[in-house]
Design goal:
Strand content: 5-15%
Helix content: 40-55%
Shape: elongated
Radius of gyration: 32 Å
Strand order of the largest sheet: 1-6-5-2-3-4
Largest sheet: 6 strands, mixed
Structural class: alpha/beta
Length: 415
C-alpha cells in the first residue's frame, strides 16, 4: 500500500528506480505506473524479439509498432515528451549479443520476463554506471542481491541469507530507510575524518609556534588534548543520528574533493587567523615583556617548564579552544544527519570542555590553572605580588618574571 509513496521518496532523493521482474511485460508496466515508477501519462515502448530474431518496439497503449528511428531518438535524448522503455528478457539478451545494451540500460524502466541470471547481469550493467541497490524477496533474486553494491532482502527466507541487509517488513520503505542510514553513515565518516585532519592542523600550528618561540605547552595540556579532547570528541562526532527525511542531494564520497577541501582549508585559514590575531594582541599589551624567556638556559630534562611564558600561555589557550571547536564545526549539517544540536553527547562534552578552558583562563589563580601552568606563578611571586597564598605545590617558574598571570581585562579580551 505504501509502495508508491516510498518510490516518490526514492525519486525525490535523486535515486533512479527501475523494475526487474519475472512477470510479463504488460504486468510490469501496469504495476510500474501504479507504483509511480513512471507517470500515468507516460508513453511506454516495449521491446521484444520478433520472428526474424530481431527486436520489435511496440507502443503499449496504442498497440502499434514503433519506428526504430524513434527509439534511437529516445536513447539519444532527442524527444520532448514523457516516454519510458520496457523490454523482455529475450530482448535484453539479444541487445547484449549485439553489444548495444549499454545504450539502452539507463533509458529502460521495466525489465520483464527476467531469469535470475538476467537479473544478475542487469544489476552488473547498472553498477557500471553508478552505485546500485537491489531489493527483492524471492530465491530468484539472490544472485542480484549479492552482486549489487547494496542488497536489501525483503523477507526472512533464503534471500536474506545472501543479502547484506534484510528486513522482515516487506515494504519498499525499508529501502528508503536504508538509504537514509547509508548517507548518514557516509557523512558521519567524512565528518570524523575531517575532525582528525583539523586536529592535525591545529597540532601543526601549535608545534610551529612552539619551535619558533622555543616553548611548549605544559605536560598536563598534552595529556588532556590527546587522552580526553581528541579521543572522546572523535567518538562523540559519530553520535549524530540520521536525518528524518531523504534529502534530494547526495553526500560527497571524495575525501579530497572540492567540498572536503573547501571545508578543511577554510577552517585552517580561520584557525590561523585567530592564532595570529591572538599573538598580535599579546604584543600590543603593555604588561607583556618580549623576549624575556631564554629556553637555552633551561634544564632540558624539565621541558614542561617551557610552558611558563606568556607566549606559551596564549598559544595553549587558543589551540585548546580550537581543538574543541573543530568538533563542533564538523558536526554542523542537516541534509544527511540530524541537526547539530541533536547530537546531545557532543553538545554536552563541548560545553564541559569550553567551561573548563574558560575557567582556566578567566578564574583567579587556582589549583586547576596552575596544573596547566596558565595564570599561575612561583609561590613566592604569587604571595608577594598578588597576595595569593596557594596551599598546593607549584614548581617554581623558570622565567625572570616568575609568573604568567594575565591582568583581568586582558583575560576577557583574549577569551
Amino acid at each position: 500500500e505504501d509502495t508508491a509513496d516510498a518510490i516518490d521518496r526514492l525519486k525525490g532523493g535523486s535515486t533512479r528506480t527501475v523494475m526487474i521482474t519475472g512477470d510479463t511485460a504488460l504486468t510490469g508496466v501496469f504495476i510500474s505506473k501504479e507504483a509511480r515508477l513512471m507517470s500515468d501519462a507516460a508513453t511506454v515502448y516495449l521491446g521484444d524479439i520478433n520472428k526474424a530474431d530481431g527486436i520489435t518496439w511496440t507502443d503499449v497503449d496504442r498497440e502499434e509498432e514503433v519506428d526504430p528511428a524513434e527509439i534511437e531518438r529516445v536513447i539519444s535524448d532527442g524527444v520532448d515528451y514523457d516516454v519510458e522503455l520496457a523490454m523482455t528478457g529475450k530482448a535484453f539478451n539479444r541487445l547484449i549479443d549485439l553489444g548495444d545494451i549499454r545504450r539502452y540500460i539507463l533509458y529502460t524502466r521495466v525489465f520483464a520476463r527476467m531469469l535470475p541470471t538476467d537479473k544478475l547481469v542487469c544489476i552488473q550493467l547498472h553498477m557500471e554506471r553508478g552505485i546500485t541497490g537491489m531489493c527483492g524477496d524471492g530465491g530468484n533474486d539472490t544472485a542480484a542481491l549479492r552482486a549489487a553494491h547494496v542488497g536489501m532482502a525483503l523477507s526472512d527466507a533464503e534471500a536474506s541469507i545472501v543479502s547484506p541487509f534484510s528486513s522482515s517488513d516487506r515494504s519498499i520503505n525499508s529501502c528508503v530507510q536504508l538509504l537514509i542510514q547509508g548517507r548518514s553513515a557516509l557523512a558521519t565518516s567524512l565528518a570524523g575524518y575531517l575532525y582528525l585532519i583539523l586536529y592535525g592542523q591545529t597540532m601543526t600550528f601549535l608545534k610551529i609556534w612552539s619551535f619558533y618561540y622555543s616553548l611548549s605547552a605544559s605536560s598536563n595540556i598534552w595529556i588532556w588534548v590527546d587522552a580526553f579532547i581528541n579521543t572522546i570528541m572523535s567518538i562523540c562526532v559519530a553520535y549524530s543520528g540520521p536525518a528524518k527525511k531523504l534529502s534530494k542531494y547526495r553526500p560527497t564520497a571524495q575525501i579530497l574533493g572540492p567540498q572536503m577541501m573547501t571545508s578543511a582549508l577554510g577552517t585552517v585559514f580561520i584557525n590561523f587567523a585567530f592564532l595570529a590575531g591572538a599573538f598580535g594582541w599579546l604584543y600590543r599589551q603593555q604588561w607583556f615583556r618580549c623576549n624575556e624567556f631564554d629556553a637555552s638556559a633551561m634544564d632540558i630534562s624539565k621541558w614542561w617548564l617551557l610552558a611558563d611564558s606568556y607566549e606559551a600561555e596564549v598559544i595553549s589557550i587558543v589551540c585548546l579552544f580550537q581543538f574543541v571547536n573543530n568538533a563542533m564545526v564538523v558536526n554542523f549539517g542537516y541534509l544527511f544527519r540530524r541537526r547539530w544540536y541533536r547530537n546531545y553527547a557532543l553538545i554536552f562534552l563541548w560545553a564541559v570542555y569550553v567551561s573548563i578552558i574558560s575557567i582556566v583562563l578567566l578564574a583567579r589563580t587556582n589549583w586547576l590553572n596552575c596544573r596547566f601552568r596558565i595564570n599561575c606563578g612561583s609561590k613566592s611571586i604569587l604571595a608577594d605580588s598578588f597576595d595569593i597564598h596557594p596551599s598546593f605545590d607549584i614548581e617554581d617558574y623558570s622565567t625572570p618574571l616568575g609568573h604568567n598571570i594575565i591582568p583581568n581585562d586582558g583575560r576577557y579580551e583574549l577569551w
